[in-house]
Amino acid sequence: MSLRTQTSLLAVAAALTLGIPSAWAQVTPKQEDAAQLKADEASLARERAQDAKDVKALKADKAEGKMSAESKDSMRVYRDKQSIRGEKKDMAADRKGSLQGKEDKTELKQDKARLKADAHRQQRDNKHGRMAATSPDAEKVYQDQQAIKGQEKAIAEDKAKLGKE
After folding, report:
1. Which conformational region is residue 19 in: left (phi greater than 0), alpha (psi within -120 to 50 degrees), or beta?
2. Segment 9-19, tens digit of pLDDT
3. Burial (CB count within 10 angstroms: exposed 0-12, middle 13-18, buried 19+), residue 65
4. Separation CA 99–CA 107 (nearest Å)
5. Alpha-carbon dihedral 94, 99, 101, 106, rounded to 10 degrees
6. What is the mean pLDDT of the chain?
7. Which of 16, 51, 106, 145 is most buried per CB count within 10 Å?
């Protein structure tokens, strides 16, 4: 068999296997929009399920006192309070007038100033809605809610598009 006949046989085989291009099913824009709407609705259901799961985890973590339910700012304030408590214990154990007692007193003053600054930062971040004032769990819930809003908007657009056609 020559190369020319092999090539033509391959072309015929490909045409028979793949079919004639004009015979392929054509997807209309309306069918495409309907499929997109169905996909968006399925995605919305997944997003709502994930949101419910994250809200449940947030509530459970808060109830158990887990750190994932705490924001960065509240963790700073918590650590500052722990540091102050530790310094006070150290000062109680020190002898009066000792060098160690003086150092502990200085550290206590610094820790109190740090606590005041961190508490102020936490209040400011809460007031302005900054992410540093949001716990990782609460951030997941927020992202889920944003995704749900986006899916609802996409579904509304898809329905409007289908209604026009």
Report:
1. left
2. 666 666 656 65
3. exposed
4. 12
5. -160
6. 80
7. 51
| Alpha carbon distances (Å) from 134 to 26, 116, 146 | 50, 19, 15
The model's pTM is 0.53
147 Cβ contact list (under 8 Å, min separation 6):
47
Half-sphere exposure of 91 (CA within 13 A, CB side): 14
Q: What is the pLDDT of residue 23?
A: 47
Distance CA 24, CA 4 (A): 28
Q: What is the pLDDT of residues 117-158, one digit of tens each?
A: 988 888 888 787 776 667 778 888 888 889 889 989 988 888
Assigned token pair, 147: 């995704």
Q: Which two tokens stand for residue 58?
A: 């947030």
CA atoms within 13 A on the CB side of 75: 13
**Which residue in this structure is represented by tokens 């006070």?**
88
Q: What is the pLDDT of residues 30-43, one digit of tens each?
A: 888 888 888 888 88
Q: Are 102 and 87 in contact (CB under 8 A)?
A: no
Q: Find out whether 70 and 57 touch, Cβ atoms under 8 Å.
A: no
